[in-house]
Structures are given as structure tokens and as C-alpha cells.
Amino acid sequence: MNRNARARTLWGIGNTIVIAWALVPVLWLASLSFKDPATIADGNFLPTKWTLQNYRGIFETSLFTRALVNSIGIALIATVLAVVVGSMAAYAVARLRFPGKGLLVGAALLIAIFPPISLVSPLFNLWRQLGLFDTWPGLIIPYLTFALPLTIYILSAFFREIPWSLEKAARVDGATPFQAFMRVIAPLAAPGVVTTAILVFIFAWNDFVFAISLTSTLNSRTVPAAIAFFTGASQFQTPIGSIAAAGVVITIPIIVFVFVFQRRIVTGLTSGAVKG
Amino acid sequence: MSTRSDSRVLEAPPGARARRRASAPLSEGARAERRLAWLLCAPAAIIMLAVTAYPIGYAVWLSLQRYDLRFPAAREFIGLTNYATVLSSNLWWIALGVTVFITVVSVAFELVIGMGLALIMRYALIGRGAVRTTILIPYGIVTVVAAYSWQYAWTPGTGWLANLLPSGSAPLTKQWPAIFIIILAEIWKTTPFMALLLLSGLALVPDNLVRAAKVDGATAWQRFTRIMLPLMKPAILVALLFRTLDAFRIFDNIFILTSGANNTRSVSILGYDNLFTALNLGVGSAISVLVFVAVAIIAFVFVKGFGTAAPGQEVDRR
Predict the structure, then answer these.
(1) How many CB pairs under 8 A join A and B?
(2) In chain A, which residues have their Cβ closer than 8 Å to the Cβ of B7?
(3) Within a domain: residue A116?
(4) pLDDT value, residue A110
(5) A73 or B65: which carries more pLDDT confidence?
(6) B146 Cβ partners below 8 Å, 6+ apart?
(7) Does B154 touch chain A (CB under 8 A)?
(8) Number of domains in chain A
(9) Which of A85, A107, A156 sits opposite B43 (nearest CB)?
(10) Taken in order A214, A216, A218, A219, is the CA torsion positive or negative?
């Protein structure tokens, strides 16, 4: 009994350290975003004078709001496309026998380890020639590409868990393979699809390399890239406050995902990895 | 992907299940199955090929030319000159050294801390859910945002961490302190991912095996090194492979924290600077290709040298 209590205390201390370590940088940024411009450089961990001025500031200019629209739009479209295209391939990988499967899976693995910087120079030049530079599709296409391996791995792992017999039953009842896919497998696969969609969205939401290389104006610049351009040239009183506020705003969806879908994200992240 | 080539249709499909029926002629159903599979895979395969294979080939071609965007008229084929320029430059070797250092140190720390986190998430008597949830925040947060948080924390006067240092020190403006802050930011951001991959390996360790060892008098440390670690080896190798490749591509943290000043450039930052600051597509592309080759070598060493099971192989095994 006593021993158990001691163990609990020890685990409790360990957990507290971990949680503090994970949260402190986020809390520090939030604190900066609420600091009054006059006290923003005072070095206190908590604001001495609270204000919402930084938030009002960023929402008053198109520099941030337009970038936010770009971020949301580009990430959502890339997510939908990746899930549609990826789940088709994942279904084939998980369920069907066909030559070339190993090739597809191998290609996906190669892309998963591909360094984005190696694509930046050719895409920069190609996009200028094709008129895709500084457009939404110019970012959606690379995001879709880099999200596909993730999508195929996670979804094929999910699809393998779905009971075969249901699909066979549908086929016996006269459904075509396509109908069996749409009517029987797709609804069963929904949890996996949601998980994958969250991870792809986080990836697209997070990207910085492509966002600063393949855009040049507010036309398609996403928030992470736009923030990097707040400094100096902006009309805000202090870029620190604006950057902190913008950072907090784009962290909100992540925090919502984490709290609502914690279990799914963990399953998704680990199902792509080896199981034996 | 050639969808309708007849030679492929007659080929025996790979895998154990296929071998069983390789001798039998293909039924109508099997042929329909293949057609459907190819149709379903075609979009993904085409996109992946078009957006990576073609551009990397194009990057190789660009890297063989003198191509300065400020003097587009002077564009010409110059063979391997750009590679000679890069490889004989101090900047490249410094950047490579910095990248390798950051990769090795941060991945080593992540492995140790990540293992601790995985053990907490599996065996803690209380608060497992809370830990699992909270550590997803560093994983999910936008790297640039986290990097700004660290930058301001270490800015003299403004930052709570900088104020803990002796006054007058500005760590982000000196090479080694800056590199250590970059490593800190990298470890904070990516340890959760490592921890989750290790957790999935830890889930493979049977509880009764650990309990039996305990009954036999094995200490906690012995249970960890003699039972858990060997069983987790495949998961550890995969986690190391993914994180090593990822760390080698480091860009966001350095871009925000130091912009590569004071010799803190990684190879990715160097490539970016050559493309967008120097506007030299030829040299920039040569760096892109070299980074690609380096990543390929790392992956090859892991897969061939350590026998890391690539996730793709697992797909085929089933």
C-alpha cells in the first residue's frame, strides 16, 4: 500500500515534468501575445499588463487574414485530394492482388524520405514556366505528393483490419468490386480516413519550405511563411506581439485536434510503423 | 505505371498468397481485380512520379548548367563545374558538418528521452492519457511558431530563458550556443514522434514475459535491457531511420532562429540561400542533388547495414 503510494508519487512527478516540458514554450508564446507593447520586452514569463491589442492588430490587416484564408484553403484542399487519391491506392494495396504493388509501396517509401529542398529548385523553375508560381495549386500539388505516402501507409493498415467477409458477401449479392468498395468498405474505413485526414492537414498546415519558396505575395502565402515576413517591414508596432498572436491563432486548430482526436492521432502515427 | 501491358498480366503476382495460385490460369475475376487495382493506384502513382521523379531529373539537368537568374542570357551547359564549386567551397563542408552534428546529437537525445516517454505512456500508474495528449502538442504545432517561441525566449532582455544567463550574452548570435538552441528546439518538437514510434514497439513486449522476469528476480534495468530492448529493436531502428532522415533535412528551425548566420547553416538552408538570395539556380540545384544523394546514402546504410525493416516490406509480407 505504502509502496504503491510512493510509486504513484514518482510517476506523478515524472508526468508533471513531461507535461511542463511540452507546454512551457507554448505558454510562453501565448504570454507574449497578451503582453502590452510597452512591456513586451520585459523578460517576464507572465504578462504584467494584459492586452488584446496584438490580436486586434493582426486581424485588422490583410497581411494576416489573407494568409489565414490561404492556409486553411490550401491545407483543406490538399487533405481532401490526398485522402481521395490515397485511399484508392491504399485499398488496392491492402485488398487486391496485382503485380506492381511492391513498386508502388517502394515508391511511396522513397517519397516519404525525399528531402523537400531537393524539389524546391526544379519546382520553382517549373512553376514559373507553367504559371503555377504563387498560386494555390502551386502549393497544393507538392503537399498532395508528400502526403500520399503517409496516406497510403496509414490507410492500408486500417483497411487490412476491415473484415473481408462483408465485402465478399456484397460481391456474392451481385455488387461489382467498385460497389463493394463504395457501399461496404468506405463506411467501415471512415475512422481511418478521419485519422489520416487530420495528419495530412497538420502536415500541410505546418509546411514552411515550399510555402516560402513557391510563393511571393499574399496571393498564396500561408501563415507560417507570412509570419516570417512580419518582421521589420510591417506596420505593426511590435512584430514580436504580432508574431506571437499569429502563432497562437494557428496553434488553436492543432490544440483542438489534439484534444478531440488524441487516440486517433496516436494510432495513425504508429500504424504506419512496423508491427513485427 | 503501364496499366495494360500483356506481359505483366501473365506474370505471377508476388507474395505468398499469389504463389499458391500462380499455376492456375487467371480467372475472369482475378483479371478484373488487377484492372481495378491498377485503376485505383494510377492517380497516386502518376502524381508521385510527376512531382518527384521528373523534377529531380530536371534538378540534375539544371545543376549541369551555368544558370544565374540575374544573368539568364549567360545560361550554358558547364558539366560538373557547379558540383566542383560546391564541393570545393568551405561553406558546403561547414553546412554539412553542422547538419550532421545537429542530426546525430538531436537524434541521440530524442532516442533516450523518447524511450523515457514511451515507458511513461505504457507503464505509468497514473496520468498516461494526460501525457499522451500533451506530448501531441509539440508534435502538431507549426515548427515556425515553436521556433519563434524559442527565439524570443533566448533574446536578451525579452526572453525568460536569456534572462537566466549572465547579462550581456546573446546566445543566438554565437555559433555553438546557437547550434545548441537549434538542437533544443528540434528535440522539443520531434521527440513526441520518436516516443510514439517507440511506444508502438513497446506494445509488442508481452506483459507476462516482463512479469515472469520480475518473478525470477530480474531488476527493472535487466528487464529493460534484456527483454524490452531486444524485442523493440525493429521499432527502434525504424524510429531512428525516420528521425535521422528528417533531422538531416532540418530547415524551419534554423531559418527562424538564426537564418543561418554565424555558420549555423544546414545543407538545406545553404541550398535555399543559393537559390533565393544568390539567385543561382545552377549551384542551388547542385546542392539540392547533393542533399538528395546524402539522404539516399543514409537510408541505404540503415536498410542494408542495420537491416531496418522498411514499412513497405511489411505491407508485402502480409
Answers:
(1) 337
(2) none
(3) yes
(4) 83
(5) A73
(6) A25, A26, B138, B185, B188, B189, B253
(7) no
(8) 1
(9) A85
(10) negative
Sequential pLDDT tens for chain A (276 residues):
577 888 888 888 989 999 999 999 999 999 999 998 888 878 888 888 888 888 988 888 888 999 999 999 999 999 999 999 998 999 899 888 888 888 888 888 888 888 888 888 889 989 999 999 999 999 999 999 999 998 998 888 888 888 878 878 888 888 888 888 788 877 887 888 888 999 999 999 999 999 999 998 889 999 999 988 775 444 545 588 889 999 999 999 999 998 898 888 888 877 755 432
Structural domain includes residue B68: no
**Which domain does B243 fall in, by range?**
85-317
Q: Among A73-82, B133-142, B295-304, which range has the highest average pLDDT?
A: A73-82
DSSP for chain A?
A: -HHHHHHHHHHHHHHHHHHHHHHHHHHHHHHHHTB-GGGTTS--SS-SSB-SHHHHHHHHSHHHHHHHHHHHHHHHHHHHHHHHHHHHHHHHHHH---TTHHHHHHHHHHHHT--HHHHHHHHHHHHHHHT-TTSHHHHHHHHHHHHHHHHHHHHHHHHHHS-HHHHHHHHHTT--HHHIIIIIIHHHHHHHHHHHHHHHHHHHHH--HHHHHS--STTT--HHHHHHTTTTTSSSS-HHHHHHHHHHHHHHHHHHHHHHHHHHHHHHHHHTS---
Q: Which grid coordinates are listed for A70?
A: 490561404
From first CA to last CA, the distance across chain A in angstroms is 37
Q: Distance between alpha carbon A49 and the CA centroid of its chain, in Å? A: 34
Please state the pTM of the whole predicted model. 0.87
| ipTM of the complex as predicted | 0.89
Is the CB of A122 less than 8 angstroms away from the CB of B58?
Answer: yes
* pLDDT the model gives residue A262: 86
In sequence order, which residues have a C-beta less than 8 Å from that of residue B205 and are 6 or more positions away?
Answer: B227, B228, B231, B232
- Nearest CB among B141, B196, B255 relative to A251 is that of B141
Chain A residue numbers touching B252 (CB-CB < 8 A) = 208-209, 224
Which chain B residues have a beta carbon less than 8 Å from that of A202? 140
A179 in B contact zone (CB under 8 Å): no
Number of domains in chain B: 2
CATH code of the domain in which B258 resides: 1.10.3720.10
Burial of B24 (0-12, 13-18, 19+ CB in 10 A): exposed
How many residues are recorded in chain B?
318
Domain range for A247: 59-271
Indicate whether A20 belongs to any domain.
no
Q: How far apart are CA B248 and CA B104, in angstroms?
A: 9
- CB contacts of A182 in chain B (<8 Å) are none
Say if B72 falls within a structural domain.
no
* CA distance linking residue B306 with residue B304, whole number of Å: 6
